[in-house]
Amino acid sequence: MELITVATFDNMPAAHIAKGRLETEGIPCWLADENLGQTDWLYNIAVGWIKLQVAADQVVQARAILDSDLSDTLNSPQD
Questions:
Q1: Is 43 left (phi over 0), alpha (psi -120 to 50) or beta?
Q2: Which H, E and C letters describe 14-64, residue by residue?
């Protein structure tokens, strides 16, 4: 299976939040190089940060999910 990087992150919490968003929508995904940067921050730069990857046939859907902004729903009052 060919994996395509749909986003890169310079910190693990942001990478895991994005990964969770995709998994919630049913898109299997993987984080490449997530632990390397924890060893030494300079390794993150050398390898091109933490990479969120999905199967090639799910790239468009994954990018659409990651590009959506749900922040306005976070503080809305409950009906």
A1: alpha
A2: HHHHHHHHHHHCCCCEEEECCCHHHHCHHHHHHHCCEEEEEEHHHHHHHHH
Paired with 29 in beta bridges are: 54
**Are 47 and 5 a contacting pair, CB within 8 Å?**
no
pLDDT in tens, 5-33: 999 998 889 999 999 999 999 999 999 98
Instruction: Calculate the dihedral angle through the C-alpha atoms of 15, 30, 26, 57, rounding to the nearest 10 degrees.
Output: 120
Maximum pairwise Cα distance, the chain:
49
Tokens of 71: 């922040």
